[in-house]
Amino acid sequence: VLAKHKPAAILHFAALIEVGESVKDPVSFYENNVIGTLTLLSAAQAAGINAFVFSSTCATYGLPQSVPLDETHRQVPINPYGRTKYIVEQALADYDQYRSLRSVVLRYFNAAGADFEGRIGEWHQPETHAIPLAIDAALGRRQGFKVFGS
């Protein structure tokens, strides 16, 4: 596919993302998020693609040492999901230095949103993301909303 279409860059947004699931089944997260990304990087390099945008996460920071956070904050992920994203970020830095890759890492903080007409956005059951769960609790569609951490 890469050789046929010759894209100028890879925009990598595919990953397993559920933190709770990563604690229950960390191996699947390492296989998908780390090995899958390394496989994609190898294929991209073989096809001569040297620009890479990676969808990471604020979970790479772990527990905040200070607020607000910025990109210089120490990264100490506390769950397998965050660790897989952190490992890939480190691999990208090595590819940048040793393989002439140009990568950009995006670290999201509860990114949310959708089109008002429902054409784009997330929809999954059971819901596990913070913003939809909080909205459902506020509307009385669920009993309470748990926040983990401080």
Automatic annotation (TrEMBL):
The lineage of its organism: Bacteria, Pseudomonadati, Pseudomonadota, Alphaproteobacteria, Hyphomicrobiales. SUPFAM superfamilies: NAD(P)-binding Rossmann-fold domains (SSF51735). InterPro entries: Epimerase_deHydtase, NAD(P)-bd_dom_sf. Transmembrane segments: none annotated. It comes from the Bacteria. GO terms for biological process: galactose catabolic process via UDP-galactose, Leloir pathway. Belongs to the NAD(P)-dependent epimerase/dehydratase family. The gene is exoB. This is UDP-glucose 4-epimerase. Pathway: Carbohydrate metabolism; galactose metabolism.
